[in-house]
Design goal:
By secondary structure, this protein is α/β, with parallel strands linked by helices. The protein folds into 2 domains: about 140 residues, Rossmann fold, CATH 3.40.50; about 180 residues, Glycogen Phosphorylase B (Rossmann fold). It contains 15 helices and 12 strands. Helix 1 packs across helix 15. It comes from Egibacter rhizosphaerae. This is Glycosyltransferase family 1 protein.
Amino acid sequence: MRVAASAFDFKFFEPVDAALRDAGGVLRYDRWFGLAEHDPARSRSLARWADVLFAEWCLDNAVVAARERRDRQRLVVRFHRFEFDRDAPARLDADRVDLIAFAGPHFRDAAVERFGWPDERCLWVPNPVDVEAFTTGKTAAAGRTLGLLGWERQLKRLDRALDLLEALLEVDPGWRLRCKGQHPAAVDWVWHDTPQRRWFEAQLDRIASSDRLARAVRFDGFGPVADWLRDVGWILSPSDVESFHLAAAEGMASAAVPVIWERPGAQQVFPARWVHHDTEAAAAAVWRAADEDTRASQAREARAFVAERYDRPRLARVWQELVLGAAPAHPARTSEG
């Protein structure tokens, strides 16, 4: 079966691509130049070639795919989070879409309400986690090391991670915080946003002006995530907003204990025991599990949870059925069951 996939960014698409190829799918890419810029002739040509149109992101590429879709074809749209406050979803002709797959359950429910899309065509399909790839073990330092994977936007809440670290350092000076990902100064649209830039400058000044924080905080650049997670025993998810939060799930797959701040949808994706109302509650939870036996037990439970619900082979079968065959009735479950 021939699949034409369109997007401005395919960074989350590789597991879907692999799943479809493993099931005999033949894929071609319509790579857009930006959120709304593309080669109309190529888009039209690929639409005529394909049996299935796959719009990765619900942006203008999805609007165009719906317009180009023919009656013999199937159209699948993948909705992350970035699209929610843009105008493209409101312009999508949902009657010409067979399925809209959401990375997070909260945004699935919110989109159905906001855009009036058919409930039965909107499904939550989590981002796959390659659990086996994160089976690397932990170093001795992991037990006292917090990890923040992705911190380049204000909504990722570096400040909460620092607050938690300071609370732990009050009792034990051995705690450390490792932050991995792009520096916000390397992200043009973030650094050119004056309020956001000033916020980051304040956080970085906070670290630099505190001997205790300066010793305890380390910023890591690019490199294999699985290798980095060997030193991390506690994976932080302090964001204000996430559709799913793949970074937290990958940390759990590596056998790091999750520390998640409450936000809409968090308890639909992760067990409530690891979702905390505020930083004080998060610190208390860390201390309750800080001895090595308790931390190791919770780490095993976290890894088992991700392996059962979000492992890549399981979700590969879901994508194969959704795109190439009949959709399963329940492609994903909430953390409650």
